[in-house]
Amino acid sequence: MPPLWALLALGCLRLGLGVNLQPQLASVTFATNNPTLTTVALEKPLCMFDSSAALSGTYEVYLYVLVDLASSRNASVQDDTNTPLSSTFQQTQGGRTGPYKAAAFDLTPCSDLPSLDAVGDVSQASEILSAYLVRVGANVTCVSDPNFQGLCNPPLSMATEYRFKYVLVNMSTGLVQDQTLWSDPIRTNRLTPYLAIDTWPGRRSGGMIVITSILGSLPFVLLIAFAGAIILSLVDVGGSEGAATHDSQITQEAVPKSLGTSEPSYTSVNRGLSPDRAEAYASKLQG
Q1: pLDDT tens figures, 176-185
Q2: Residue partners of 131: CB distance under 8 A and separation at least 6
Q3: Is there a contact between 8 and 116 (Cβ–Cβ < 8 Å)?
Q4: I need a surface site. Which of 54, 75, 175, 182 has the fewest CB within 10 A?
Q5: Which residues have CB under 8 Å from 175's CB, separation 6+?
């Protein structure tokens, strides 16, 4: 028997001993983060009520929600005629003034439950989990949507204790057939302040530590690269200015050197020749 089936069998035995038991939180095998800030996942009442009721197909299970207050711990979910209440989330101020109906689903016979062997299949996981669990607070839009039809199951309040009750209703008569006790108080999570978050590496996996280290050092690497690019650009600008200055100095020094007195010009040489030698020198150049 697979481990999930073992857990399910234990759950059915726990719930099947009688309707004087209470709704229970879903196993961590099915819901690892439960409760959350605004939701609570509960096990459906599988094998809890009379099996003949499930086989008849004329019964539904209602789930009622109530804020745990001293004045409402014995609240009834039916009127004097044994008719189940139809109070809504809005009418009861989110369960503070009385229980409200958050969900309704068919009573499934134990023999018709889907196999848990395929729970690892992504395409079937949602359908399988919905057969075994009910999530209170799953609808985030029904309160604000004026066109919403059906039961409104809006998010719960954070850091608030709630109680839950399952009620078996005979749809042929519209009357309550059976019901469980109210559950023990179940508290939704509180938003953790930033300063209270535990950052000790021992509470994190190796992969998380590596990813955190990489992301933490990335800004410093980018800053160093940016600073290096600025320095290189400044060095290039300084080198080009030095080359231009050197060229200009060479150009400026070339002019007085050509006009210096240490090297006589062509004109001064010609002036030092006699007329006859100059004429001979000219004729030789022409020849």
Answers
A1: 999 999 999 9
A2: 44, 108, 113, 114
A3: yes
A4: 175
A5: 81, 82, 83, 84, 169
